[in-house]
Amino acid sequence: MRSSLAPAACLVSALAVAPALAEPPRISLVFGLDRMTVAAEDIRSVRRVDGQGQGAALVIRLAGRLDPVMSALTEAHVGETGELLICNELAVRPYLDAQIREAMFVISDTDIARIDRLQAMLTGPRCADRPGS
């Protein structure tokens, strides 16, 4: 699955944004060897937008301190396809056509059940509690 990332993303070559966790990071954005990881406490909001029978989207805003990380990662990987993982599960393979300066993601899909699952994984107390695990 290939899609564009709307205002969203982040960078980390050897920079781990999240502290060492017993469970996987809540969100990871990966371009080759560069990775940005985000712990649950760095997710500021997850807003769902329903599209009148045409699917739905999740607008995910991260802590402002991650804006420079996102900007650096995306600047280094314009023109590349990465992987956006939620609880180590592939959510989307975004194509990056421009640098993203704000630490936010927009994930859209016509599969409402998939959006429901991703939303539960993002807002639940732990990755281990995700639906279907």
Pick out its properties.
133 residues; alpha+beta; Gyrase A, domain 2; five-stranded mixed beta sheet; three-stranded antiparallel beta sheet; 2 helices; signal; Preprotein translocase subunit SecD
Any chance you could write out the topology, listing elements then pairs?
Layout: E1 2-4, E2 27-31, E3 34-38, E4 43-50, E5 56-62, H1 67-76, E6 83-86, E7 89-95, E8 104-109, H2 112-123
Parallel strand pairs: 1-7
Antiparallel strand pairs: 2-3, 2-6, 4-5, 5-8, 6-7
Describe the structure.
Residues 1-22 form the signal peptide. Keywords: Signal. It comes from Rhodobacter calidifons. This is Preprotein translocase subunit SecD. The protein is of the alpha+beta class. It has a single domain (2-126), classed as Gyrase A, domain 2. The chain has 2 helices and 8 strands, in the order βββββαβββα. It has helices at 67-76, 112-123, and strands spanning 2-4, 27-31, 34-38, 43-50, 56-62, 83-86, 89-95, 104-109. Strands 1-7-6-2-3 form a 5-stranded mixed beta sheet. A hairpin with a 5-residue loop joins strand 4 and strand 5. The chain is globular and about 35 Å long. The model is unreliable at 1-21 (pLDDT under 50).
